[in-house]
Each structure stands twice: as C-alpha cells, then as structure tokens.
Specification:
By secondary structure, the protein is mainly beta. The chain contains two helices and twelve strands; from the N terminus they run H-E-E-E-E-E-E-E-E-E-H-E-E-E. It has one domain: Sandwich (Jelly Rolls). Helix content is 7%, strand content 48%.
Length: 203
C-alpha cells in the first residue's frame, strides 16, 4: 500500500491491525448478534446433576471484544423452591478462575427449560479467556445440560478418556448467597454445566 503524503507508518499499522481479516478470517470473531456464545469444541448431553453448594466454573473463549446482555442455563430436571446462581470470573495466566467479574444473580429450578438473567447494565468483556460459574442449593435433584469438550486449553483427564471442561470446588450455604471473590483453589473437572452468554454487540 502506498504511503500518502503526511501519513505516518504508525497510523498505517494501527489501521491494518484493527481489521479483523487483515491476514485471515477467524470464524470465532464473526458472530451473530442476539445469539448465545458457544463453548469451545464441545458435545452436549443432558445428564449433569448439580451437587448442592458445589461451585462450577465452565471455561469459555471470547475471541474479540463483545458486550453481553443475558446469561442463561437450561434446566432439564426441576426442583421446586431451589435456585441456581450464575456469574462470570476472569481467567488467570495459569488458566484458572480468578477474580469475579460479576455475580449475575439467580434463576429458579421450579420448571424446566432455558432460564435467563438480563444483565443490566450489559457486561462488556475484552478478548480473552473467562469462566462462567454456577452454584445451586438443590440437593442432588436439579439437572442441567452438560458440556464435555472434544478439546480445549485445560488438557486431558488423567485416563485420557475426555478433555477437561473447567473447575469445581465445594462451597457452603453462605457462599451460595453470593459468589466469592476470588474463586479460590479448585479442582479440574470433566463435566461442567452449559452456561450461555448472549451477544448484544461486537465491540
């Protein structure tokens, strides 16, 4: 590209870098607004019974700066009078859940189907890796959609039968009332709840 009179090379480079397709098209950077962000390379099953007061953190990749207006989870087996609390955590350099981005509140498990929380204001996340969190007070009854990845950044299970999906740690009733910050020491997991973030805009 020819340099125009008075144009600095720094400006040219900044313009070039800003274009998403400067060298190649990244399919994960092109995403339909109004849809839920997919988890990286997973297959879906319907058999995850959430353990009471266990905090689950499901690994996700945000491939570009995005703003999200809803967080949701799908209830497969109901448990009257119980709830699931949802939230977002940052991911540290060791690919572990770290500081809390937002405690998004709760959905009830009184009925089956998709349960969504409107994020008001909407949550903007910069390009990077994050964890979506869920914890319930249901005592081994409520079931949600389960994610098992074909591959991902968290490695394989110890017997190589599946890839890891995230982390989990046992909490208490008090900690169910509000998500902890930071997440705390946790164990790698191979079965995590599918939690969705709905894209409001591509920033």
């Amino acid at each position: 590209m020819l340099k125009l009179a008075g144009e600095l090379i720094e400006g040219q480079l900044a313009d070039h870098v800003a274009r998403l397709d400067a060298h190649t098209i990244n399919l994960y950077e092109q995403f339909a607004v109004g849809q839920y962000l997919p988890l990286p390379l997973v297959y879906i099953s319907y058999d995850l019974t959430m353990v009471q007061y266990r905090l689950y953190a499901t690994y996700i990749v945000v491939a570009r700066d995005m703003t999200f207006d809803r967080i949701a989870i799908d209830i497969e087996t109901l448990d009257n009078g119980k709830d699931i609390r949802l939230g977002i955590y940052n991911c540290n350099s060791s690919l572990e859940p770290s500081s809390l981005v937002q405690d998004c509140g709760t959905v009830d498990t009184d009925s089956t189907g998709l349960k969504a929380i409107t994020l008001d204001p909407a949550v903007s996340l910069t390009k990077g890796r994050y964890f979506l969190a869920a914890i319930t007070d249901s005592d081994g009854v409520a079931k949600v959609v389960n994610a098992t990845p074909y591959s991902g950044g968290l490695g394989l299970s110890t017997n190589f039968d599946r890839a890891r999906t995230g982390y989990q740690v046992t909490k208490t009733a008090t900690e169910f009332a509000a998500l902890g910050d930071p997440f705390g020491a946790a164990n790698l997991d191979t079965a995590s709840p599918v939690i969705g973030l709905r894209v409001e805009s591509l920033d």
